[in-house]
From TrEMBL:
Superkingdom to which the source organism belongs: Eukaryota
Name this protein carries in UniProt: Uncharacterized protein
Organism lineage string: Eukaryota, Fungi, Dikarya, Ascomycota, Pezizomycotina
Organism: Xylaria bambusicola
Amino acid sequence: MHQATAPVFTDRALVSRQAILQGYTRLLVNRFKDSTSSALALRESFSCLQDTKHNPWIELLSNSLGESILWRLIPAKLRKMQSDHYATTLDKIQRRMSSQVM
């Protein structure tokens, strides 16, 4: 994944997209300003920016967002197949657990 995304984050690539990045950064900051306390419900700093250390909770959140984005890149037909497989497996497990014979 790193190899596939690395070219997007070179200095040249970032400079060429500076206006776009600044626009989204302004939008993000404005959303934080406009939001109520629900956006920052924990009211607690993770000190990631100050300490330049990863917080496990933030890392977990980032990973789950990445998986969500990757999930959308999978063709709909494959997502449907995976969903059907999961539903069938879950149904079989539930029937097995509800049966008297273990």
